[in-house]
Amino acid sequence: MRNKILLLGSGELGKEVVIAMQRLGQYVVAVDNYKDAPAMQVAHEFEVIDMLNGSELDKIVNKHKPDYIVPEVESIRTERFYDYEKQGYKVIPSAKAANFTMNRKSIRDLAAIDLGLKTAKYKYASSYYELVKGVEYTGMPCVVKPLMSSSGKGQSIIKNESEIEKAWDEALQGSRGDLMEVIVEEFISFDYEITLLTLTQNNNNTLFCPPIGHRQERGDYQESWQPMKMEDSHLKTAQEMADKVTKSLGGSGIWGVEFFIGKDGNIFLLSNKLNTFFLLKVTFNVK
């Protein structure tokens, strides 16, 4: 069956997704805020709009009447997705998932408050003064990140008071969209990290692939491998947490849920960016 897919975000990843969709016989309209974006070069149609402008987004949806709406970047007026679902459009994986995973504040509060999961200590800051107070609360070292960013931009570690102002400036410069707010959280010393590919299905049954291990050096990615050898009890805990969070967000698809396993064997859930997609990246550290 041929469906029309509205792809919101047309970067290099989006280009690969368009090619994969076309191999399955699907019709793709690629959207971004600049012309000749990578995915636009291979899509059937393209649109250039400001995706943070809700009215422009509404017009594109009404114009194309897609079978599926797929968000690929963070800089989208995601709260509009709830209205689209009410109108009968299918948002991948769901309006709630897309809206929550584009914002560290929403997903952190979902985990820590709504689901009652124990997370690293954290505070939000919308001013330099609030960041100073947040650092006092979490203690040093601590990590500062924009609430909305991509590829780790704007993230830094504060080890002493003299680094607070620089961290504030870097976080604002690395922020995407129009959200000028940061999160500061305590630094967690971990032994290793994994990605747990989690498949949620329409029948409410959740499946898990073997864990994927990762190695970074000085903040730079080096390699990944599968499977990552880990304690059965740790894997079970990770699976339980991934199942709980993905079920709360709703929708069916593949989620890449990331965990940090502490040096003491604890599993930590830390807030990070979640990109909603056919392949969804969810970053957590669960304790």
The biggest sheet, with number of strands, parallel, antiparallel or mixed sense and barrel status, is: 7 strands, mixed
Shape-level CATH architecture of the largest domain: 2-Layer Sandwich
Q: How many strands?
A: 16
- The name CATH uses for the topology of the largest domain is D-amino Acid Aminotransferase, Chain A, domain 1
The number of distinct structural domains comes to 3
Low-confidence stretches: 271-287
Structural account:
It is a single chain. This protein is α/β, with parallel strands linked by helices and 287 residues long. The protein has three domains: 4-92, Rossmann fold; 122-186, ATP-grasp fold, A domain (Dna Ligase, domain 1, 2-Layer Sandwich), CATH 3.30.1490.20; 189-283, 2-Layer Sandwich (D-amino Acid Aminotransferase, Chain A, domain 1), CATH 3.30.470.20. The chain is 30% helix and 28% strand. It has eight helices and 16 strands. It has helices at 12-23, 54-64, 80-86, 95-101, 104-114, 128-138, 164-173, 232-249; strands at residues 4-8, 27-32, 45-48, 68-71, 90-91, 122-125, 142-146, 156-158, 182-186, 190-200, 206-208, 212-217, 220-225, 253-262, 267-268, 279-283. Strands 10, 11, 12, 13, 14, 15 and 16 form a seven-stranded mixed sheet that branches. A five-stranded parallel sheet has the order 3-2-1-4-5, sandwiched between helices. It has a four-stranded antiparallel sheet with strand order 6-9-7-8. The termini are far apart. Mean pLDDT is 86; it is low at 271-287.
Q: What's the short story on this structure?
A:
The protein has 287 residues and is an alpha/beta fold. It has helices at residues 12-23, 54-64, 80-86, 95-101, 104-114, 128-138, 164-173, 232-249, and strands at 4-8, 27-32, 45-48, 68-71, 90-91, 122-125, 142-146, 156-158, 182-186, 190-200, 206-208, 212-217, 220-225, 253-262, 267-268, 279-283. The chain folds into three domains: 4-92, Rossmann fold, CATH 3.40.50; 122-186, ATP-grasp fold, A domain (Dna Ligase, domain 1), CATH 3.30.1490; 189-283, D-amino Acid Aminotransferase, Chain A, domain 1 (2-Layer Sandwich), CATH 3.30.470.
